[in-house]
Sequence to fold (78 residues):
Amino acid sequence: MAGYCCDCSSFPCELLTHLDERYRTKYGMSMIENLKSIRVSGIQDFVRSEEAKWSCLGCGATICVHKAHCLECQRKWR
Fold:
């Protein structure tokens, strides 16, 4: 079974820390915090939480962290 970065003794490594800084700045999300959540609550709880978080309030489609609007209905979310 494959593990997650949070299972590594080097977590968070330099590569992940650098990527996390970019995503915090540019997209307002943290991969490190996501991985900590997975470690504490498990992947199923994390996925349920993320499905709710990343659903468009306008049409229910999955929104993309890289875009400031829903790709389906164009509603701004950020």
Notes: The chain has three helices and no strands.
